[in-house]
Specification:
This protein is mostly helical and 197 residues long. The chain has 11 helices and no strands. Helix 5 packs across helix 9 and helix 5 crosses helix 10. The protein is globular and about 55 Å long. The mean pLDDT is 90.
Length: 197
């Protein structure tokens, strides 16, 4: 029987708090059980196991992140939308490192398909990029470019990986300028081996 007061939402919210405090890798059922003052088995009434808990946490954090991004990009287009999107992404990653780490895990495709937050993420991201005149497969390529750039920068910044004297925010702004130029002047078409010879 489920312990009174415990719900899936409470368990996932507590996991998000624990992730930011102790790191995503330290989110375990045992750690959460201690937080609630219950035995590990009590949590199995709410989640199927650690993988399920972490997937739910990833979706929870992803929803928080896209909510921030949606507010930031509302009414903007082009470079303004890109800068707002990037700024909201970076702020969330730095303010909530454990939750952000959760957003980077691979989630079962069936969970993604049923997630309104994941659909909203795709709509907002692809909508912003369509303003640059991109269609598939260029849209997917551009999403991968943005994600890898944002994630790499945030990961290095949060780890203290930028040791040069240059202001980190100034470099970030320059990276956004460079991404805007890349998106504006996106290479046309896929190259084949024959084109490259």
């Amino acid at each position: 029987m489920a312990r009174a007061g415990l719900t899936v939402d409470r368990v996932v919210t507590a996991a998000a708090e624990l992730a930011d405090e102790a790191g995503f890798e330290n989110v375990t059922l045992s750690a959460l059980a201690r937080r609630f003052g219950v035995k590990d088995a009590s949590l199995y009434s709410h989640v199927r196991g650690l993988a399920d808990l972490r997937s739910r946490l990833a979706l929870y954090a992803g929803a928080e992140l896209i909510d921030r991004i949606a507010v930031a990009v509302a009414g903007r287009a082009g470079k303004d939308a890109l800068a707002a999107f990037a700024g909201a992404y970076r702020a969330y990653a730095l303010e909530h490192p454990g939750r952000y780490a959760a957003t980077q895990i691979r989630i079962d495709q069936s969970l993604i398909a049923g997630s309104p937050a994941m659909r909203r993420t795709a709509e907002i991201t692809y909508g912003m990029l369509r303003a640059y005149g991109l269609d598939e497969p260029d849209l997917t390529d551009a999403v991968r470019l943005l994600r890898s750039t944002f994630h790499g920068y945030c990961a290095l910044e949060s780890a203290g990986g930028f040791g040069a004297d240059r202001d980190v925010r100034a470099s970030w702004d320059k990276a956004i300028d460079a991404l805007h130029m890349a998106l504006t002047h996106w290479p046309a078409g896929d190259r084949t081996e024959a084109d490259e010879r």
